[in-house]
Design goal:
Blueprint: H1 4-7, E1 15-23, E2 26-33, E3 41-50, H2 53-61, E4 73-81, E5 93-96, H3 98-102, H4 108-111, E6 132-136, E7 140-142, H5 149-152, H6 155-168, E8 175-179, H7 183-194, E9 199-203, H8 207-216, E10 220-221, H9 226-236, E11 242-247, H10 255-261, E12 263-271, H11 285-289, E13 293-295, E14 302-303, E15 306-307, H12 308-323, E16 327-332, H13 336-344, E17 352-356
Helix pairs in contact: 6-7, 6-12, 7-8
This protein binds zinc ion (ZN) (2 copies).
One zinc ion binds next to helix 4.
């Protein structure tokens, strides 16, 4: 445990290292002012931070130079608290929900426990690819000893999977299919298994993903041939089909149509993959005939008064060893360009690439 004095920065050290995207597929290190501890906010010294699919989307598609770092899958230690902060103290190991940590806390959606739809966000979202990050106190979630810094930085993607399973009301005994076994697909598998899903069939494109899927609770990896994959799920369900399927690929492929084909009449579809803007490739008639219920969960929040991050931390404290299989690479923040390159190139067998400060 580091002492408070060591963690606190001195007046001579008011700048920090941060990684900014400076052009298409180009990340560079920069020096920036350390964020100020405004009233109600907390400054965290970043330990680990994961590269998310949304970060990669910007890396591949946006050329505008960033003035504020991305990055929202953070673990670290509280080094400073602003005026009025009562529930967080210096020296605590934490992770950050930046959705909650940047929201106003007062609008109708915040009051509803759905800060993703906040109408008056008070701070820019992100900031994690840096030595220090600021969040409002509400966004801070303490980490137990069982959840180390690396696991702490996958609380966010795990919370995405948990949120989806809670929205879909996945209950014990259900049979499901997860299409895609990147970090979000793996989170969905782990969350569905923890919710009691009896069997989870998985479509995984890469060997490292297939291995991780089995480690976090998949029943079986389906063959690459779509007709054969559907036949296996039908055989396992008396010809009926799965109770639910979760799409966790996105982009521009026909994975949502594919997911719908696995599901029985009156079953459910959850979409977690981020589809590209302008994507129109969804065949509605087949799921319409089956009267499927479509869920479009976005990030996380409170359901029945319980936050998805709290449940994700609990899951990681029980099943951290299995879930750690999704963390495939760990580089220094100074190697941010290489970290993004590895994360973007799935031939590297990367799933979750993390950087440490
Ligand atoms: Zn993320
Ligand atoms: Zn709000």
């Amino acid at each position: 445990m580091t002492s408070t004095d060591e963690l606190r920065r001195g007046p001579q050290d008011e700048t920090m290292r941060a990684a900014l995207q400076t052009g298409l597929c180009t990340m560079k290190m920069a020096t920036m002012p350390i964020p100020e501890a405004l009233p109600g906010t907390v400054i965290i010294k970043v330990a680990s931070i994961g590269i998310c699919g949304s970060d990669l989307h910007a890396y591949r598609n946006s050329s505008g130079p960033q003035s504020f770092p991305h990055g929202h899958e953070v673990s670290g230690t509280v080094v400073e608290t602003g005026a009025g902060v009562t529930n967080v103290s210096v020296g605590q190991r934490v992770t950050v929900d930046m959705v909650l940590g940047t929201a106003c806390g007062k609008c109708e959606y915040c009051k509803l426990g759905t800060p993703i739809h906040c109408r008056a966000r008070e701070f820019p979202f992100g900031g994690g690819f840096a030595e220090f990050v600021r969040t409002k106190e509400a966004g801070v979630f303490p980490l137990p000893d069982a959840v180390d810094d690396h696991l702490g930085a996958i609380v966010e993607p795990i919370a995405v999977g948990i949120h989806a399973c809670r929205k879909m009301r996945i209950v014990p005994g259900m049979v499901g299919v997860v299409v895609g076994a990147g970090a979000i697909g793996l989170s969905a598998i782990a969350a569905a298994r923890d919710a009691g899903s009896e069997k989870i069939y998985v479509v995984a494109r890469h060997p490292a993903q297939a291995k991780a899927a089995l480690a976090v609770g998949a029943t079986e990896i389906l063959p690459a041939d779509p007709a054969e994959a559907i036949r296996i799920v039908e055989q396992a369900t008396d010809g009926l089909g799965a109770d639910y399927a979760i799409e966790a690929v996105g982009g521009t492929a026909d994975t949502l149509d594919f997911a719908c084909r696995f599901v029985r009449p009156l079953g459910m579809i959850g979409v977690l993959g981020a589809f590209d803007h302008g994507f129109r490739g969804v065949e509605i008639i087949a799921p319409h005939i089956k009267e499927l219920t479509l869920h479009l969960p976005n990030c996380y929040g409170f359901i029945d008064g319980q936050h998805d991050f709290a449940l994700a931390i609990d899951l990681l404290s029980r099943k951290g060893d299995a879930l750690r299989t999704m963390i495939t690479h760990n580089l220094s923040l100074d190697d941010i360009q290489e970290a993004f390159r590895l994360a973007a190139d799935k031939r590297s067998e990367s799933i979750k690439v993390q950087v440490h400060t």
